[in-house]
Design goal:
single chain, mainly alpha
Length: 127
């Protein structure tokens, strides 16, 4: 079965390209004209862009997003298939719960939140 193109895959690819372009993004942030002139300044967009780019945890958050989406992407074919047997889908959610619980470099509160989301989803889906 081939990988199914999804919004998750697209988002994960976007995050990975941002990760690779971190130096370029930092260079953009330092260009004063970009943030202080033009229609984007008037619309307040540059403030939001600058806040994201200058956040000291930007790369860490990006790494976390990529790690989370990579685990979801492992099962995306099963989640999108109309023909997947229920036991396989249930097993995938159990495995996904464990993968979220064991995410490296993610704090305990975030892991607990992700585990709870996965657990609620498959428990709700099976009732």
């Amino acid at each position: 079965m081939q990988h199914v193109p999804t919004r998750w895959g697209t988002l994960n690819g976007c995050f990975k390209s941002l990760q690779v372009a971190d130096n370029i993004l930092n260079g953009l942030e330092s260009r004063v004209r970009f943030f202080h002139h033009g229609k984007y300044q008037a619309e307040g967009k540059t403030c939001r862009i600058k806040a994201v780019l200058t956040d000291p945890d930007f790369v860490t958050k990006l790494d976390e997003c990529i790690a989370i989406l990579a685990r979801i992407d492992m099962y995306i074919k099963i989640f999108q298939s109309d023909a997947g047997p229920c036991p396989d889908v249930y097993k995938a959610f159990l495995e996904l719960e464990e993968k979220m619980r064991n995410l490296p470099n993610v704090d305990t509160d975030k892991k607990s939140y992700l585990v709870e989301l996965v657990r609620n989803f498959y428990v709700w889906g099976c009732t």
